[in-house]
Write a structure and sequence with these properties.
Elements: H1 2-19, H2 32-46, E1 53-54, E2 57-58, H3 65-77, H4 81-106, H5 109-120, H6 123-129, H7 135-153, H8 161-175, H9 178-193, H10 204-226, H11 230-245, H12 257-265, H13 273-284, H14 298-317, H15 330-345, H16 355-377, H17 402-416, H18 420-440, H19 442-447, H20 452-459, E3 469-472, H21 479-484, E4 488-490, H22 494-502, E5 507-512, H23 513-519, E6 527-535, E7 540-546, E8 556-558
Parallel strand pairs: 3-4, 3-5
Antiparallel strand pairs: 1-2, 5-7, 6-7, 6-8
Helix pairs in contact: 1-4, 1-5, 1-18, 2-3, 3-4, 4-5, 4-6, 4-7, 5-15, 7-8, 8-9, 8-10, 9-14, 13-14, 13-15, 14-15, 16-17, 17-18
């Protein structure tokens, strides 16, 4: 128990290093963070736990779990970005501990500890741990599902049914059917591989279904009743079936989209990923597990391989593709990567001589890509077209590429000296330093090129004492609603804009500058520009135009 608590302390310390620096320093990232943070705020202010809304209209895109957690966080820490993101940070920490426990149960303590570190320091996992989105929460309940299944099914036991069903119910409340369908598919394929499908025919199945319904069913029933079936109809029809069969919101890609994304977003550990998957597949086909390693057996490898492949194939077949869809497969590849490195370090795995030099070469390429990418994105290396988005200031962080470069150098020295433990220590320290730095500092530079929060603060539209109206035309970011704390009405046409500004009650219009220059001749009341800022999402200057008294000095006046 003392060793386990020590490992927990190590993993939580690493988790804090990777997630807490600058957690609340950036404004909400649109679209997802803005929508989720505001939906939770509206539930908090409306004192409801049932009906999710955004911009004071029904929100059907996601179930309710994240909003519940954010609502609790708001009550503890206030209405701010840090509080909106804290549930994801906490879920990420608990997920790392869950992966440690699962890998420890499957293999040993060393594999568990390294698996937790690999997962925590993988770039996409770390970035989503900073995000006010349901991804980290879904991952927590997915890992909980697989942990409870693995611990309950060992040695022919059938104790896994009820706790696994309860965990799936929590996942269902977090992101819908994917929280139960894919774990069910993984368990089915795992038992089929082991020729144990008979273990699925059990009277406990009835109880498990009942438990699942008792966990997830009450909220789905209440939201269906309260919205007269509208929420359920749109969520299951549009947000699940249609999203799988039809590319939505321009999020499409080829079949190999997620395979390529994994190699990029599992950085810096992706340099070991092909080898880890290969040897994991080899272990799953052998009664003794790893080649030349007789201390384990095939079952863990089969389960991890099925876990990874099921998610990869399922989301590769889906028409709508986003990088975060594959996050629930990260624990499986983190454990496989950790196991590969541990058995290699112990000398029980005879890897080809070229394998580790190839991995170090991958780190060098990563270093070059990071440095060059930041120089280009910061505008210091002018190779992009004139109209391309650049973020002056990012080039100052190009030195972050030195971290993987230095890591590769230390690893090379350790490899030549045959110090495998030092090789692995260098890889681990380098991964933590690199991912923590990338997650904490460049986003602060990019944040300076987001318009929503600055426009709201400059225009003064967040003042609750003012009787004002807000609207948008041809430009909108969801975080505007969060920062303003008011409904922002969409104006679909020039006539609607003119009517909005003609009403005597002070009105504030968010509109791109180029669009306003086309519209202002059709507005027949005095107006003034009370705020303006550049928005990198739409790559345009955005104005706040008002027909009322400016909160501060007007930036420009356009009398009519």
């Amino acid at each position: 128990m003392r060793q386990r608590l020590c490992d927990y302390a190590i993993l939580l310390t690493i988790g804090a290093i990777l997630t807490l620096p600058n957690l609340g320093a950036t404004s909400l990232w649109d679209v997802d963070e803005g929508v989720n943070a505001q939906a939770a705020r509206e539930m908090y202010e409306n004192e409801t736990w049932i009906i999710p809304t955004f911009n004071y209209q029904l929100r059907t895109a996601k179930p309710v779990m994240l909003y519940w957690l954010q609502r609790v966080s708001y009550s503890l820490f206030g209405m701010n970005e840090w509080a909106a993101r804290w549930p994801s940070v906490l879920a990420a920490w608990l997920t790392v501990l869950g992966v440690y426990e699962l890998a420890r149960r499957m293999f040993d303590r060393a594999t568990g500890l390294l698996a937790g570190i690999v997962l925590a320091s993988a770039c996409e996992f770390c970035l989503l741990a900073h995000a006010a989105t349901p991804d980290a929460t879904l991952l927590l309940f997915t890992v909980l599902t697989y942990c409870l299944f693995w611990m309950g099914h060992e040695n022919g036991s059938r104790r896994w049914w009820i706790p696994t069903a309860a965990a799936c119910g929590l996942a269902m409340l977090t992101k819908g059917p994917v929280g139960v369908a894919l774990p069910g598919l993984v368990v089915l394929l795992y038992f089929a591989w082991n020729r144990e499908l008979g273990r699925l025919w059990d009277r406990r199945l009835v109880v498990a279904v009942l438990v699942f319904v008792l966990v997830a069913g009450p909220w789905y029933t209440l939201v269906a009743v309260e919205t007269r079936g509208e929420w359920v109809r749109v969520f299951f029809g549009r947000e699940n079936l249609q999203r799988f069969s039809t590319p939505m919101e321009n999020h499409s890609g080829p079949f190999f989209y997620h395979a390529v994304a994994l190699l990029i977003l599992f950085t810096p550990w992706s340099v070991f990923l092909p080898a880890a998957l290969w040897y994991g597949a080899q272990g799953s086909r052998s009664a003794t597990g790893w080649p030349a390693d007789t201390t384990t057996y095939a079952r863990p490898y089969r389960f991890l391989v099925v876990w990874f492949v099921a998610y990869l194939v399922f989301f590769s077949m889906a028409a709508t593709k986003l990088p975060n869809y594959m996050l629930p497969a990260y624990p499986a590849i983190a454990i496989l990567t950790a196991r590969f490195l541990i058995v290699w370090q112990r000398g029980t795995l005879a890897a080809p001589q070229w394998l580790m030099p190839a991995a170090m070469g991958g780190l060098v390429l990563t270093a070059v890509a990071v440095a060059v990418g930041l120089l280009i994105a910061g505008g210091a290396w002018p190779v992009l077209p004139p109209a391309a988005r650049v973020f002056p200031g990012l080039e100052r962080w190009a030195f972050l590429g030195l971290i993987p470069l230095a890591t590769a150098g230390v690893m090379l020295w350790a490899w030549r000296s045959n110090h495998r433990q030092r090789f692995l220590q260098a890889a681990t320290v380098g991964a933590i330093a690199f991912t923590a730095s990338v997650a904490a500092f460049p986003p602060v530079v990019i944040d300076g090129y987001k318009a929503a929060k600055e426009l709201v603060e400059t225009s003064g539209v967040a003042d609750p004492a003012r009787d004002i109206r807000l609207a948008h035309h041809d430009w909108f970011q969801p975080s505007i609603v969060f920062y303003a704390g008011r409904q922002v009405t969409e104006l679909p046409s020039a006539e609607a804009v003119a009517t909005f500004l003609a009403i005597p009650t002070p009105g504030y219009l968010f509109v791109p500058e180029r669009t306003w220059r086309q519209l202002e001749s059709q507005v027949n009341v005095p107006t003034q520009i009370v705020a303006q800022d550049y928005d990198f999402y739409k790559n345009c200057q955005v104005l706040v135009v008002s027909n009322g008294v400016a909160f501060g000095p007007a930036i420009a006046a356009t009398p009519r």
